[in-house]
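Tokens as discussed.
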């Protein structure tokens, strides 16, 4: 056999990794084997498989291949959903590494663990699922739905498969799966992809801003196991800047740093609500588990100095919370790093009554004296040209523009342009009451109603008012609600609806389309409501006040979902957009002759009783004194 004949009998495709020709035999007259026939210019019969382009299929066999033969096909199962655990918000990473982790078929539980359980526990029922982990919806796995607690063990998740596994567990938790804990064993950090890595926010918080920084970190992680010592013994000096031991140590640290980012992502999932208290305590709450965590040590707080008077999110991802204390100290809580650090002391008259962030990430502070000031993160003063008048009670910013609204005690609603410092609108007081007496001005809260140009305010004289600066200076609609001052106000998932709360403990939903119409009232409060925050897209609202309890209500059904006792009075509350808020599934109720309102009251009463029972159990038992002799007689 001549060399020329050999060339024509073997596939002409050059394998890029091995840098040699493919050794598969080809049919007479063809240049490529069946696997590489798609590279033949005259090929019309073979195409890459839609499920996995690493292999090819004949066009005439495509339907049968996808349905029965393809090992990468997705089965028609309820727990298989295309790319449910894949982050599609970012383009695919440009640094692919050796192969794509997302193409690997990974098991929910390693085969070796299943075999060990089968041997040690012969009576244990084992269900084995094989599927790409990026498509696995744990909440739809039938045998997990009725489990009281699920423990996940995931072994050797290669590269980005670890991130898919973390998202799979997180998605399961958000869909009512009761995960009690899990253990992930990652490997092959050099195969992680930036587009799928869950700890990107953490890396940005420590100065690694882009994919190139991530690629460098990923490359350094290979130094932990790439055998520099053997290379040195063979006479190959690859150390250059660092010694062999230094490189190995850096490699181990890089691996740990990648895992710290994943841990930060998981910790951030536990933080659904942030509250600022009158004692100065700053707490994070997990709504699914009904638990809270004290960020600040409570024994070192002085309420006269550290009371939290205002809070706001300082980034779009809602991972950082800006906090103002009574002594005008501004602090920043980073939920990814778990740090609560001092920024600077804002100089101004009185306490800080409002905090906002501009598009340029400058901090806006509104002081009780009326001073509106802009600061850089380091405390450098940017602007102090606005004075909104004394006794400010509220300052709020329009989300889409650099415009703020202010108001307070005998200080009417005013609108300010931050770019020019000009006052563009001053509200006019309402007409005297039926006794021709002047109505006091007491603006307690305000919100911009989206892009409508209208503003809703609440007052200490129990009024809800809507202003339209384009129409007139007086309110276009007004409603007197009950008899107590209204301090808490929030927009919600319903367009042009607001939820308000007063100092007596009443909270209601109002429709602002046309006239102000009350929709329904929420139950379960005891004492003044100081702060409300509703989710912008989901039907949930959280509230807090002087009774030391954070409550979660369903906006539409009025149902009280959660009560979390936080031990101290609270002033401010913030609800994250991404949270673990769930409505646990319950068996369907049998029909009764009673109305739905009575059933709701019963369910709320059960929740209240269970919470009260928990409080009683946590109390310490006080021993009883012995009776005296004359008492026995």
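Sequence:
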């Amino acid at each position: 056999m001549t060399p020329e004949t050999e060339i024509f009998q073997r596939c002409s495709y050059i394998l890029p990794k091995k840098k040699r020709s493919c050794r598969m035999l080809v049919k007479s007259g063809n240049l490529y084997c069946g696997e590489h026939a798609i590279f033949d210019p005259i090929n019309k019969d073979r195409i890459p498989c839609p499920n996995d382009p690493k292999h090819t299929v004949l066009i005439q066999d495509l339907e049968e291949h996808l349905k029965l033969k393809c090992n990468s096909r997705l089965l028609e199962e309820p727990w298989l959903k295309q790319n449910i655990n894949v982050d599609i918000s970012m383009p695919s990473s440009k640094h692919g590494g050796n192969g794509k982790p997302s193409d690997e078929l990974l098991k929910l539980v390693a085969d070796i663990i299943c075999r060990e359980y089968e041997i040690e526990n012969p009576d244990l029922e084992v269900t084995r699922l094989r599927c790409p982990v990026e498509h696995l919806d744990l909440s739809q796995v039938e045998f997990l739905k009725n489990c009281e607690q699920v423990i996940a063990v995931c072994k050797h998740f290669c590269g980005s498969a670890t991130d898919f596994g973390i998202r799979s567990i997180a998605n399961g938790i958000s869909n009512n799966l009761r995960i009690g804990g899990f253990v992930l064993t990652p490997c092959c950090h050099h195969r992680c992809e930036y587009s799928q890595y869950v700890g990107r926010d953490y890396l940005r918080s420590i100065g690694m801003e882009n994919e190139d920084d991530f690629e460098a970190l990923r490359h350094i992680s290979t130094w932990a196991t790439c055998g520099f010592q053997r290379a040195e013994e063979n006479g190959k000096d690859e150390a250059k800047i660092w010694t062999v031991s230094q490189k190995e140590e850096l490699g181990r640290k890089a691996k740990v740093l990648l895992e710290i980012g994943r841990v930060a992502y998981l910790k951030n999932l536990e933080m659904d609500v942030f509250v600022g208290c009158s004692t100065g305590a700053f707490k994070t709450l997990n709504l699914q588990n009904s638990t809270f965590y004290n960020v600040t040590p409570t024994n070192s707080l002085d309420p006269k100095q550290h009371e939290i008077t205002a809070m706001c999110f300082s980034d779009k991802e809602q991972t950082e919370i800006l906090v103002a204390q009574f002594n005008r100290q501004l602090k920043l809580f980073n939920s990814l790093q778990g740090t609560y650090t001092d920024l600077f002391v804002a100089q101004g008259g009185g306490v800080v009554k409002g905090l906002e962030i501009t598009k340029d990430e400058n901090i806006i502070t509104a002081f009780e004296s009326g001073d509106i000031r802009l600061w850089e993160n380091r405390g450098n003063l940017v602007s102090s040209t606005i004075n909104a008048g004394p006794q400010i009670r509220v300052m709020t910013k329009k989300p889409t523009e650099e415009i703020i609204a202010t108001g307070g005690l005998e200080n009417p609603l005013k609108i300010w342009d931050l770019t020019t410092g000009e006052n563009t609108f001053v509200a006019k007081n309402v007409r005297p009451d039926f006794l021709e007496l002047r109505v006091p001005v007491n603006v307690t809260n305000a919100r911009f109603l989206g892009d409508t140009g209208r503003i809703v305010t609440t007052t200490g004289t129990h009024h809800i008012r809507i202003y339209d600066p384009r129409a007139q200076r007086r309110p276009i609609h007004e409603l007197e609600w009950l008899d107590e001052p209204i301090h808490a106000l929030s927009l919600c998932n319903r367009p042009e609806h607001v939820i308000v709360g007063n100092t007596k403990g009443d909270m209601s939903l109002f429709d602002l389309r046309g006239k102000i119409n009350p929709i329904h009232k929420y139950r379960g409060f005891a004492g003044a409501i100081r702060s409300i925050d509703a989710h912008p897209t989901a039907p949930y609202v959280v509230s807090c006040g002087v009774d030391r309890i954070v409550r979660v209500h369903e906006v539409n059904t009025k149902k009280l979902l959660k009560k979390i006792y936080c031990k101290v009075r609270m002033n401010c509350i913030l609800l994250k957009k991404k949270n673990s808020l769930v409505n646990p599934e319950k068996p369907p109720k049998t029909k009764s002759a009673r109305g739905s309102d009575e059933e709701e009251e019963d369910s709320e009463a059960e929740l209240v009783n269970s919470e009260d029972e928990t409080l009683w159990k946590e109390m310490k038992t006080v021993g009883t004194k012995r009776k005296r002799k004359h008492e026995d007689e």
